[in-house]
Amino acid sequence: MQNNIFKYAPAAMALLAMSSCGQPKERPPQKPNIIYILADDLGYGDLSCYGQEKFQTPNIDQLAAEGIRFTSHYSGSTVCAPSRCSLLTGLHTGHAPVRGNREIQPEGQQPMPADTRTLAHELKDAGYNTACIGKWGLGYPGSVSDPLKMGFDYFFGYNCQRHAHHYFVDYLWENDRKIEYPEKVYSHDVQTEKAFDYIRSQQDSTFFLYLAYTIPHAEMRLPEAYMEPFINRYPEPNPFPGGHYGAQQHPRAAFAAMVTHMDRDIGRLMQLLKDLGLDENTLVVFTSDNGTHVEGGNDPDFFDSNGPLRGYKRDLYEGGIRVPFIARWKNVIEPGRESNHISAFWDMYPTFCELAGKQPEKNTDGISMVPEFTGKEQPRHDYLYWEFPVLGGRQAVRMGKWKGLRYNLAEGNRNIELYNLDTNPGETRNVAENHPEVLSKISAAMQEAHEPSPVFKLPIDE
For 334, what's the count of Cα atoms within 13 Å in the CB-facing half-sphere? Predict the structure, then answer.
């Protein structure tokens, strides 16, 4: 495994209670509730606190104002299932069991192995009640890795990410039961209310809520009442004709309305925490599972959804994997901070374990971010690594200011593109020929980080 695997740090409570000379400074806070909100295909530039100008996200902006906003945080992968697997296992895609979107018919995706230990297992063992509400995408119903077998006490939502392509549905899953709706419901609203009910039910407990929203992934549809304020706000030169995602006459209005609606619900969630007296002891994290998408009539170029970055979902360029990341914990995280700490989904495993006061029961590729949250000296990664086994096979490494990529592995390409992200975050100037020593280090990292998978094979394994 990668040579900077997390070395178990002391519990967060001890870290927060000690002064620089090692003597107790004040009584440590109790371990926090954790709410991890995951948007689906939200781009780096799709929030107004990250530069979005065509619509506003005031409630998520308020999270950033009251917490810490990260500018160099990365998803686990460039598509849904492997990104979520990376989050839950603490492993990058060179080690994780799920590395691509592999469908299982009639409903579901490639499961994780039965003996997979997840972040939910860890937190459950630490005394947390655990819930996943939203989209799962890591095993078919009844498989060895449905949510209840992967450490969650409660699940509600879509088991299958293909089913989650559509918002108006006639069934969703609650634990292992299919809940059928005689008249189709708008799934986002149902899931939001289930999340609020869950929080109310756990107000006297310590809980972990993984709230895996499907907004703003295609299809570009939502109730007319949410759409109406955005109709005619934007030119609509390209109505979407339909197909798998359904026709949409106003795809730009739909996108803005969807993100705005999610933002309102996050505002409602934060108000609920205040009303229940949970505000001061709940860490709330907001991020996205990968970069912006180009499906269902979505127009990321119109909204500048990837900001200054190159690429979209399925790319390993920055636009496909660099995502918004905001963390807010009142009276612990200093408000209004911005961090350029280079981090990724697999860091959540050791981070949340440390906050729960326990050591992970397995090695991960992550490094706890508790020091960065609390203004302490933060250990750094030697590098971050991604691989993507489809579209010809792709690999990428972030190593400090350097970003190296290899595309088209199936065609025999082994040349590495190299970009200096400090001076060229848009990855437009390949400087590989000027830095052979950097190329050598990145090539070695790609070799070190990749362990062959029997299911998700890279062309370099053949």
Answer: 9
- What does the alpha-carbon distance between residue 257 and residue 222 come to, in Å, rounded to a whole number? 8
The continuous run of DSSP H or E covering 440 comes out as helix 436-449
DSSP letter for 110, please.
Answer: P
Strand runs labelled E in 137-280: 154-158, 168-174, 177-186, 207-212
pLDDT at 78: 98
Q: Which residue is it, tokens 């509600």?
A: 156
* Spatial CA neighbour of 199 closest among 120, 278, 285: 278
Which pLDDT belongs to residue 29? 56
Q: Are 300 and 309 in contact (CB under 8 A)?
A: no
355 three-state secondary structure: helix
- Angstrom distance (rounded) from CA 169 to CA 180: 9
Q: Please say whether the beta carbons of 201 and 278 come within 8 A.
A: no
Q: pLDDT (tens digit, 9 = 90+) per residue, 61-90?
A: 999 999 999 999 999 999 999 999 999 999
Contacts by 409-416 with C-beta closer than 8 Å and gap 24+? 409/458, 409/459, 409/460, 410/459, 416/442, 416/443, 416/446
Q: Which helix (H) or strand (E) holds 132?
A: strand 129-135
List the one residue out of 220, 269, 262, 286 whose CA is nearest residue 38.
286
Q: What are the two backbone dihedrals, phi and then psi, of residue 433, each rounded to the nearest 5 degrees?
A: -70, -15
Buried b or exposed e, range 196-221, using 16+ CB within 10 angstroms: bebbeebeeebbbbbbbbbbbbbbbb
Amino acid identity at 212? A
Distances (CA, A) of 346 to 98, 352, 458: 13, 11, 21
The predicted-structure confidence for 31-61, as pLDDT tens digits, reads as follows 999 999 999 999 999 999 999 999 999 999 9
Q: Are 186 and 168 in contact (CB under 8 A)?
A: yes
* Distances, alpha carbon 425 to alpha carbons 6, 14, 436, 445, in Å: 28, 38, 20, 21
Alpha-carbon distances, residue 449 vs 316, 333, 442 (angstroms) = 16, 32, 10
In 261-406 the beta strands, taken as DSSP E runs, fall at 282-288, 325-328, 337-339, 343-344, 384-388, 394-399, 402-406
Cis peptide before 335 (omega within 30 of 0): no
| CA nearest neighbour of 414 among 442, 448, 385, 381 | 442
CA angle 462, 88, 367 (to 5 degrees): 90
Residue with tokens 């993984």: 210
For the cut 80, the answer to whether the pLDDT of residue 27 exceeds it is no
CB atoms within 10 A of CB 326: 25
